[in-house]
């Protein structure tokens, strides 16, 4: 009896590419999850460890980022075709390339502000007791992105600090917000919509030096525009976007090609309260 190598393929899965096109102040955004799988005459590495035909999966990832810079992204089908043809035509041992792309949609909120398509979740928590009634409303998974107008610098550096100072970065977050109402009667639907609009407005229009500053701006905007709300708590994950170093391929990257980081992420949390309202009758958490 003998064992034979059956069908096989290999590649880099889930390269998270965010591509920003800049036409003056107006930016365009493509947000892709790109997976590449190559197959062909790959028996040598499986059978003997001979890697002479194994284009590294790391190279596939680099190719995704470099192609975004060199050719732009455009429609996902066109980008996938360009990549697939490249691998098959440049690697003799590769007879087939499968490129799958998930493209995440973003709605425009402003020249360089976007909201991820798809639904957020509206929330409420009501506590009724003999002595009081407390109404908390909110939302989560509400994903916002500014492709510029965000900086982060001036922070302390110790021997473990490697983060470069940023004078132009992407700021993106999935808003988790809860706000406590002053009373148990309100036009709930309208109150919710207007509070959400205030969050968006503050995010879009705050030139940000930290996500913390943006958080405070979002909180104050809600309280300023909604007298029925006593206080608001925000938890804002800092959805990091890392500028890809394309210099090994002799390419500049002037704020165009980013890795959308997954984990870990910064988590910025804070409460904004009116100083002239009674404290919450009972504890409430995010
Ligand atoms: O807006 C930010 N706040 C931070 O506290 C922080 N820390 C970090 O590494 N990047 C950022 N960005």
TrEMBL record:
| Transmembrane region(s) | none
**GO function term, MF aspect, one:** urate oxidase activity
Return the Pfam families for the record: Uricase
Give the positions the UniProt entry annotates as the active site: 57, 212, 240
Amino-acid positions noted as binding 5-hydroxyisourate in the UniProt annotation, renumbered to this chain: 57, 152, 169, 212, 238
Per its UniProt record, what SUPFAM superfamilies does this chain match? Tetrahydrobiopterin biosynthesis enzymes-like (SSF55620)
Amino acids binding O2:
57, 238
Q: What reaction gets catalysed by this protein?
A: urate + O2 + H2O = 5-hydroxyisourate + H2O2
List GO BP terms, alphabetically.
purine nucleobase metabolic process; urate catabolic process
User: Is Signal a UniProt keyword of this protein?
Assistant: no
Keywords in alphabetical order, please: Oxidoreductase, Purine metabolism
Enzyme Commission number(s): 1.7.3.3
Q: What class of enzyme is it?
A: oxidoreductase
| Binding positions for urate per the UniProt entry | 57-58, 152, 169, 212, 238
Oxidoreductase as a keyword of this entry, yes or no, is yes
Q: Which purpose does this protein serve, as stated in its record? A: Catalyzes the oxidation of uric acid to 5-hydroxyisourate, which is further processed to form (S)-allantoin.
Q: What is this protein called?
A: Uricase
The species this protein belongs to is Couchioplanes caeruleus subsp. caeruleus
